[in-house]
Amino acid sequence: LLVLEAVSRRLPDTQFILAGWDVSDYHIPFPHLAAGVITPEELADVFSQCDAALVLSLTNLSLMPLEVMAAGCAVVSNRGDCVEWLLNDDVALLTDPTLEALSDALCHVLQDDAARQALCRRAQDFALQQHWQASADAFEQGLLEARALQPAAAEEVAR
Question: Least crowded by CB within 10 Å, which of 19, 75, 82, 138?
Fold first, then answer.
């Protein structure tokens, strides 16, 4: 919320939509629409109406960026292994996970229409090319490569 508050001070006409949880017990110091917990279809509709989404992941892998990008919305996220397994600078605006860096990145993507639109096109193309079968194939290939590196251990397990 601190990042969004900083953006709201710099770009006071920005409209914010908070979705995914009930924020009624929180003090949110900027104007916003609290969408709350909504269906996946409603969430896709919300994403499609947004210029940018702040999607942070510091501890786990997230598929949320793919959903956001598939809806044609720009993703601003933190750098880190939890993010960069999926995203890169060509399809998302990645930055250090600090208040200043994230708010700067979000303001940049909101103010530069041409850059945002180009990013959204690349991101949407990327998102639409992702398939579970490709992920399963990559996982299988990783297992086979790991097994090939330790043939003796694999033989012991097989016995």
Answer: 138
- Note whether 31 and 16 are within 8 A (CB): yes
- Residues 78-92 have pLDDT tens digits of 999 989 989 999 999
- Alpha-helix residue ranges (DSSP H) falling in the chain: 2-10, 40-48, 64-70, 81-84, 99-111, 113-128, 132-149, 151-158
Q: Which domains does the chain have, with CATH numbers?
A: 2-128 (3.40.50.2000), 132-159 (no CATH)
Give φ, ψ of 93 to 5 degrees.
Answer: -95, 100
Give the model confidence (pLDDT) of 107-144 as tens digits.
999 999 999 999 999 999 999 998 878 777 877 888 88
pTM of the model: 0.81
In angstroms, rounded to a whole number, what is the distance separating the alpha carbons of residues 121 and 72? Answer: 7
47: exposed, middle or buried (Cβ count in 10 Å: 0-12, 13-18, 19+):
buried
